[in-house]
Amino acid sequence: MVKPLRAGWLALPLLAACAPVSEDASVQPTPDKVSGALFVAGKFGNTLAKVDLSTGEEVLRVDSCANPHELATSPDDKHVALACYGGTSVDIFRTDTLAKIKSIELGENARPHGVVWHPNGNLYSTAEGRQSVFVIRDPLGETETFEYSTGKRGSHMLAVSPDAQHAWTTDLGDKTVTRIDLVTRRAPFSATVGEEPEGIALTPDGETLWVSARGSDMAYALDPQSLKRIKDVPVGDFPLRIVLRPQGDYAVTSDLADGGLSVIDTATGAKVRSIAVSSPEEAEAKTQVTILFSPDGERIYVAETMANTIAEVDFETGEVLRRLPGEGGGDGIAIIE
């Protein structure tokens, strides 16, 4: 049964898209050996911000497009791409200055959301309003765009294979996961996966596709080619996103309604523990959305959209180390170190 959103929660349209912790959103002491920068898309403030991880302070903020969502950094960490969910473009900014250098148009009613900057240099983006996926070749140079139809409503989040031969979307409106063949352009293949599948992540070896279905309170391990379910894993309440630890040993869901994270052992397909980011009483106020591992897999960053904060969590202990600025309804996040 699909669970309705409780009053006061962040609106998440079908086709859009435990120790207590302190309410103090000020920057806490810097954890040891943390460096680099975190980039935050403020979807209510229409901004892009940069947070210095060594100090925990916001150092830059610029105006962006309408309702920005997911972010992806370039392979050399010099640029960050922003999906303009309230518009029709993927915009590219410099990571040092946040100067916008390019706006790549995807066409009428595109509503880009999920975005991946692949090691091959190409950008990949969903275009929810067009029921499609775009490949953006040479995004920093003589850019070319290629559109691949999913034929499904609400193609929202995106994963791309290591060899860039396939992409997968979660299609909220049709309750499906869709596989796109990026080489032969064979017809897309879809399979029903739970109620309102939204989060999606591919293991580093490309052998298992993980999907979180927010309406089912479940995570599913799928065969990437056949889309057959390998494991069904009960997780927390309203799992909005799922990410893989860089080492590939754990998958983690962000459980918006109970303020926690569910940790899944990818070898056994079993949930092994929960991490309390905010207490259940605080969950409504914080509404955690996007989650992201640090490149070394030691920390998880959790966008607490309604609180305008990003929680930094020690993965091993589950301790909330500090809360970083996430002004303007921070949602999409990306990291460089």
TrEMBL record:
Annotated Gene3D superfamilies: YVTN repeat-like/Quinoprotein amine dehydrogenase
SUPFAM superfamilies given in the database record: C-terminal (heme d1) domain of cytochrome cd1-nitrite reductase (SSF51004)
Cited InterPro entries: Haem_d1_sf (IPR011048), Host-pathogen_enzymatic-act (IPR051200), Lactonase_7-beta_prop (IPR019405), WD40/YVTN_repeat-like_dom_sf (IPR015943)
Organism: Qipengyuania gelatinilytica
Signal peptide (residue range): none
Protein name, per record: YncE family protein
PROSITE patterns: PROKAR_LIPOPROTEIN
